[in-house]
Specification:
By secondary structure, the chain is α/β, with parallel strands linked by helices. The chain is built from 14 helices and 17 strands. The protein has helices spanning 23-27, 55-67, 78-98, 112-127, 146-155, 172-178, 201-210, 230-233, 258-261, 298-314, 316-335, 364-375, 387-393, 409-425, and strands spanning 36-37, 40-41, 43-44, 106-109, 133-137, 158-162, 183-189, 214-218, 237-241, 252-256, 274-277, 282-284, 340-342, 354-359, 377-378, 380-382, 398-402. The protein binds ligand 7TS. Ligand 7TS binds next to helix 4.
């Protein structure tokens, strides 16, 4: 039975916070999902790359430009005061979304990549020295690998990596051995964008802190899909991208524990991040603005605030449950296809809504092209910006489907149909 049909008199409407969500109703909130290709409504499964935007977010951005547009933190006039209040209001929404203690701990960035680079540059340059170690994992996205490689090279520090077991789960026994008094930072993704693995960040944070190291969490694939509580996780840094959680591209956030942030030098220099500037030196603005040089993406931040309202309106726990059910269905349904290899933990409760796969005799890129052309299904194929993980899996590429609030079992069925079509074309 498709999830869309599970809506009964007792079932909640999308805005209510208990029970199953109704993806067919939610789908109507997303104008782009009205698009048809070859007469078929698009099935959008490239959500780990970026999600679609609900009308509420699009309208919040339009409303800002139509009614409130002005630069922030500088105007004496009412329009600018309103723009500043809307921008800072969005920061409060991010704080509440992550359950951070104070808005001083929330820095707006362009996304996860910039957030992690901020940590590597501002915190890393001040705190990592020759002989120190940074501990990562074998499943990281390039944006949680390359900034640390640059830092380690500059400082003469060493990088270590927590290995994966054959199911694509981090080996914590080895992690415990890799952490030492030389470890300055452990930086790990909460959910893998390829394997879907949910990592035990809280346990890793404890290991890191016990060794006197800090922990940085790449939340690009977790924050959109499950409730995140940075205080419960006890992490020092948490990075997210707005565009993967219904907000526009170009906006994201970085949470930094206040006691850590207070000791960090700035990232970028320029307007807004200063208190006073002299010809030869400057003093810094209060937190968090010390870390936000120049005119920020004001409309983007407001869009992110609207996206958070939208997601919290549905309920993050319900989103997680929906994706767990859908992932279990996808693992079953796709698993029936002869010649398919599914990657990541077999247990759906240990993974987010991401399913990577390969089919014998069909290259992942051909699969992605055929499921689109034949069935209007949008999936990604490639290395997913995780080349070391591809190396570990001994593949050049995978095809990947990733689910969100508007996906349903019928979408998985259409994907399976497309894969069978590809097998037919390639005669495998
Ligand atoms: N970390 C993880 C785990 C990611 O999945 C991504 C993007 C990033 C960081 C970078 O995010 P950005 O918003 O700064 O680009 N992942 C993907 C993906 O899987 N396909 O396209 C982008």
């Amino acid at each position: 039975m498709s999830l869309a049909l599970k809506q009964t008199a007792a079932s909640p409407v999308p805005g209510k916070k208990s029970g199953e969500i109704d993806p067919a109703a939610i789908r109507k909130d997303f104008p782009v999902l009205d698009r048809k290709f070859g007469g078929k409504p698009i099935v959008y499964l490239d959500n780990p790359a970026t999600t679609q935007k609900p009308r509420a977010v699009i309208e919040a951005i339009t409303r800002f430009y139509e009614t409130t547009n002005a630069n922030v933190h500088r105007g004496a006039y009412r329009l600018a005061e309103e723009a500043t209040a809307a921008y800072e209001g969005a920061r409060e929404k991010v704080r509440a979304f992550l359950n951070a203690a104070t808005v001083e701990e929330i820095i707006f960035t362009r996304g996860t990549t910039e957030s992690l680079n901020l940590v590597a540059y501002a915190w890393g340059r001040a705190n990592v020295k020759s002989g120190d170690e940074i501990l990562l994992t074998e499943m990281e996205h390039h944006s949680n690998l390359v900034p640390w490689q640059i830092l380690a090279k500059e400082k003469g520090a060493a990088l270590k990596h927590i290995p994966l077991d054959p199911d694509g789960v981090l080996d914590l026994a080895v992690a415990g051995k890799l952490i030492s008094d030389r470890t300055r930072l452990v930086s790990v993704t909460q959910v893998s964008n390829v394997l879907g693995t949910i990592n035990p960040v809280k346990d890793i944070a404890r290991l890191a802190h016990d060794a006197g190291a800090l922990i940085c969490v790449d939340g690009a694939q977790s924050a959109p899909h499950m409730a995140v509580d940075v205080r419960d996780l006890d992490c020092d840094f948490f990075a997210l991208s707005g565009h993967k959680m219904c907000a526009p591209t170009g906006i994201g956030a970085l949470y930094v524990r206040k006691s850590v942030l207070e000791k960090m030098p700035p990232f970028h220099g320029g307007g807004d991040m200063i208190r006073q500037v002299f010809l030869d030196h400057a003093t810094w603005n209060d937190l968090p603005w010390k870390f936000e040089a120049g005119t920020p993406d004001i409309a983007g931040a407001i869009g992110l605030g609207a996206a958070i309202d939208y997601l919290r309106g549905i309920g993050l726990d319900r989103i997680r449950e929906h994706e767990k059910t859908l992932t279990a269905y996808a693992l079953r349904k796709l698993g029936e296809i002869p010649g398919i290899t599914l990657y990541g933990p077999p247990d759906p409760s240990r993974r987010g809504g991401v399913v990577s796969f390969n089919v014998d005799g069909v290259h992942a890129h051909d699969l992605a092209t055929i499921v689109d052309r034949e069935c209007a299904v949008a999936i990604r194929a490639g290395h997913h910006c995780a080349q070391p993980l591809m190396e570990r899996l001994k593949v050049a590429a995978t095809a990947r489907a990733g689910f969100y609030v508007y996906n349903m079992e019928a979408d998985v069925d259409r994907l399976a149909e497309g894969i069978l079509k590809a097998k037919e074309i390639f005669k495998t």
